[in-house]
Specification:
It is a single chain. The chain is α+β, with helices and mostly antiparallel strands. Among the domains are: 91 residues, conserved putative lor/sdh protein from methanococcus maripaludis s2 fold (Beta Barrel); 92 residues, Elongation Factor Tu (Ef-tu), domain 3 (Beta Barrel); 62 residues, Helix hairpin bin (Helix Hairpins), CATH 1.10.287.470. Helix content is 24%, strand content 41%. A hairpin with a 6-residue loop joins strand 10 and strand 11. The relative contact order is 0.18.
Length: 375
């Protein structure tokens, strides 16, 4: 019995030892394979860094304002008799827009004119009697004053009638009217906005540090959404002599010709003030920049060697300083030299020393003035 148990224990121990040896060999082989495993290279696109002349500019955001723009309102209360314009129409300077009912004032004017005519006749008669020395100078002066009072009363009513017709103070585009015939309006009630859009202002602000680079007559280029990608050129017409003590910015105003009316008052715009001279900069697509809180970087493609001394195509992470941006491009002021091959897509999956394969069949957009299809 003991002999059989000894044989069984020996067989069990041998079995366990054999299984353990087999598993140890499997694990050792997996570890060795892991150490020698090389991940497949990442597919990337690249571009060769070159210097390009960029005109120096001051970029800002602003808004379009009319040279002349008002919201016309009722000067006196009354009932709208007629509206002489259509919403959105071009109106000429001095054109009547809204006429209020003046029947009561015209009746008062007729009475006042009759009183003035009677006072004039009385004054003429008094003049004749004064010449004949039949009345005193005081009586003549009283007749003269009465005539002037009557004439002034008539003129006051004429002025009231004139104020009940609202005229266009300048040529422009009428907005959406806010009154209708038969409607009662109070004094100062809005009637219609009127904007002159043939020439507009672009108002924007720049930091006080750039103030010395600005002067009147400087060329500006304006971009606005909703104008089908068009650009508008103008000239600086005024620079505010006061710097805002809260923002340390100075307000600048540029004059923009707008013959087609594509720009409208109130539009948000981006403004580039051209400084005249140009700088040679290394410009890369935005997609080449790995933006991070600790600093922006790019990946430079270089020939590298693995631990066994075998050469391969890899990337080196290089931190850079960024300059101005234009469309899809950003200027690199430090960190990249002309001639270096820079990764332009796929940077999010790279690390320094990673193996890459370059495929430039499809390149990311890299235009200084992109025109998106949905803009």
């Amino acid at each position: 019995m003991l002999k059989r148990m000894s044989v069984m224990l020996t067989l069990v121990v041998l079995f366990i030892a054999a299984v353990g040896t087999y598993k140890f060999m499997q694990i050792s082989a997996a570890i060795a394979a892991g150490k020698s495993f090389a991940p497949p290279p990442d597919a990337v696109t690249t571009t060769i860094a070159t210097r390009a002349p960029w005109a120096r500019t001051i970029d800002a955001v602003g808004a379009v304002a009319p040279m002349q723009g008002v919201t016309l309102s009722a000067d006196l209360p009354g009932v709208v008799e007629s509206v002489a314009f259509e919403s959105g129409a071009h109106v000429k300077k001095g054109a009547p827009l809204v006429i209020l009912d003046t029947r009561q004032e015209r009746a008062q004017l007729a009475s006042a004119e009759a009183a003035a005519e009677l006072a004039k006749v009385s004054l003429t008669r008094s003049q004749s009697l004064l010449d004949q020395k039949l009345i005193s100078q005081a009586e003549f002066d009283a007749a003269s004053a009465q005539y002037k009072q009557a004439e002034a009363a008539a003129n006051e009513i004429r002025a009231t009638i004139a104020r009940k017709t609202i005229y266009a103070p300048f040529a422009g585009i009428a907005g959406i009217r806010q009154v209708n015939p038969g409607q009662y309006v109070r004094s100062a009630d809005p009637i219609v906005p009127l904007q002159s859009v043939g020439t507009l202002f672009a108002n924007f602000s720049v930091p006080q540090q750039r103030l010395g680079e600005l002067h009147e007559g400087q060329r500006v280029v304006v971009h606005a959404e909703g104008t089908l990608g068009r650009t508008f050129e103008g000239r600086i017409s005024a620079i505010n002599p006061v710097v805002d003590d809260a923002t340390r910015n100075v307000q600048v105003q540029a004059l923009l010709p707008n013959p087609t009316g594509a720009l409208r008052p109130g539009m948000y715009v981006t403004v580039s003030v051209e400084l005249g001279d140009k700088d040679a900069v290394v410009a890369l697509p935005n997609s080449a920049i790995n933006f991070a809180p600790y600093g922006s970087s790019v990946f430079i493609v270089e020939s590298m060697k693995d631990p066994k001394g075998k050469s391969y195509q890899g990337v080196r992470q290089q931190f850079v300083k960024l300059g101005a941006t234009r469309g899809d491009l950003v200027a690199i002021t430090d960190g990249v030299k002309p001639g270096q091959e820079i990764v332009t897509s796929g940077v999010f999956k790279l690390r320094s020393g990673a193996s890459v394969v370059v495929n430039n069949k499809v390149q990311p957009s890299s235009s200084s003035a992109p025109k998106p299809e949905d803009s």
